[in-house]
């Protein structure tokens, strides 16, 4: 600093103006979220993997690179819990409950009284909330958004395919719009009768939009659950391994609510299924199909009750 004297006039050399905006914190990655759970005393190292798996399988979050982004479903579930069960999802409640469970495991707390103290008030809360409006209703749509069929106001709803505008007079009016303003078309007839109920009850095949694209099903759904299979696509998904239950179908890859799984091609007549891809080998202990495992356990039995389902534990047992 140059030497200055009291009362001395200073000469302005330069003046800079800089504008800054408050930026939100970075979104969590899986590692970052686990660190946050640890800092708040929520969960245990043995539960972190299942927590991450649940978030992804139930589609509460989506991953872009390593970053986690909340989905529409995740935001709706989060808002519903915060508005109606705030006490039970708070950091303090979760951490204290886990401490109490640890105390039970060490014999320092009586489990019966602990569960009773939790469950009695919790069950009352559940009964009180039974008549709440469905969590799929997300509030009123902007006033300029009108039903394309009857001109009424609309509300924002959440379906398996995401958010959309629904007529406020539903089910009397089935008008619906996508968020971009285009009208959502209903099921379109293909001109074919349903092979299962068409002749007896007049069911017709219609094209519908589903979570994983368009598909053809019976117009009488859910009374008739027939779905027309795309043989070319089905052939790609088949593993070439015969179903051990019905002996006629092939194990095929399918996608369900919780991700990819494998089941018989004769579903729903045959309900055999397994969570991982079969390897084609048979378990030497129980005779069930072997399936792909993990990096540390490349192959395991598909039968959960077989000791070979956890082959890494067999050596310890011996």
How do the helices and strands line up, and which of them pair or pack?
Layout: H1 30-40, H2 45-57, E1 61-64, E2 67-70, H3 72-84, H4 86-89, H5 91-105, H6 111-128, E3 137-140, E4 154-159, E5 162-167, E6 176-177, E7 188-193, H7 198-201, E8 204-210, E9 213-218, E10 227-228, H8 231-237, E11 238-242, E12 250-256, E13 259-264, E14 273-274, E15 278-282, E16 289-292, E17 299-301, H9 314-317
Antiparallel strand pairs: 1-2, 3-4, 4-5, 5-6, 7-8, 8-9, 9-10, 11-12, 12-13, 13-14, 15-16, 16-17
State the main characteristics.
25% strand; extended; 17 strands; Topoisomerase I, domain 2; four-stranded antiparallel sheet; 318 residues; alpha+beta
Offer a concise description of the structure.
The protein has 318 residues and is an alpha+beta fold.
What would you say this structure looks like, in words?
- The protein is an alpha+beta fold and 318 residues long.
- The protein has nine helices and 17 strands.
- It has helices at 30-40, 45-57, 72-84, 86-89, 91-105, 111-128, 198-201, 231-237, 314-317, and strands at 61-64, 67-70, 137-140, 154-159, 162-167, 176-177, 188-193, 204-210, 213-218, 227-228, 238-242, 250-256, 259-264, 273-274, 278-282, 289-292, 299-301.
- The chain has a four-stranded antiparallel sheet with strand order 3-4-5-6. A four-stranded antiparallel sheet has the order 7-8-9-10, with no helix packed on it. The protein has a four-stranded antiparallel sheet with strand order 11-12-13-14.
- It is extended, with a radius of gyration of 29 Å.
């Amino acid at each position: 600093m140059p030497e200055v004297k009291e009362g001395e006039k200073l000469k302005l050399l330069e003046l800079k103006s800089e504008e800054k905006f408050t930026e939100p914190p970075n979104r969590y990655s899986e590692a970052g979220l686990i660190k946050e759970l640890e800092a708040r005393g929520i969960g245990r190292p043995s539960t972190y993997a299942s927590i991450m798996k649940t978030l992804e399988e139930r589609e509460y979050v989506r991953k872009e690179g390593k970053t986690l982004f909340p989905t529409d479903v995740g935001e709706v579930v989060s808002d519903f819990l915060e508005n109606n069960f705030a006490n039970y999802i708070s950091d303090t409640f979760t951490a204290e409950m886990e401490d109490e469970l640890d105390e039970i495991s060490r014999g320092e707390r009586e489990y019966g009284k602990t569960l009773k103290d939790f469950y009695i008030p919790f069950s009352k809360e559940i009964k009180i909330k039974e008549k709440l409006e469905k969590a799929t209703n997300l509030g009123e749509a902007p006033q300029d958004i009108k039903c394309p069929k009857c001109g009424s106001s609309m509300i924002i709803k959440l379906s398996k395919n995401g958010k959309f505008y629904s007529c406020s007079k539903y089910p009397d009016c089935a008008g619906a719009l996508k968020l971009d303003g285009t009208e959502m078309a209903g099921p379109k007839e293909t001109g074919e009768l349903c092979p299962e109920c068409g002749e007896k009850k007049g069911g017709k095949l219609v094209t519908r939009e589903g979570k994983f694209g368009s598909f053809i099903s019976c117009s009488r759904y859910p009374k008739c659950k027939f779905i027309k299979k795309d043989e070319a696509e089905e052939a790609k998904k088949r593993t070439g391994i015969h179903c051990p239950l019905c002996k006629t179908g092939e194990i095929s890859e399918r996608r369900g609510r919780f991700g990819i799984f494998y089941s018989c091609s004769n579903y729903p007549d045959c309900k055999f299924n397994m969570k991982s891809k079969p390897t084609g080998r048979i378990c030497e202990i129980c005779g069930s199909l072997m399936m792909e495992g993990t990096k540390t356990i490349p192959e395991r039995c598909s039968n959960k009750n077989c000791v070979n389902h956890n082959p890494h534990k067999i050596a310890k047992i011996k």
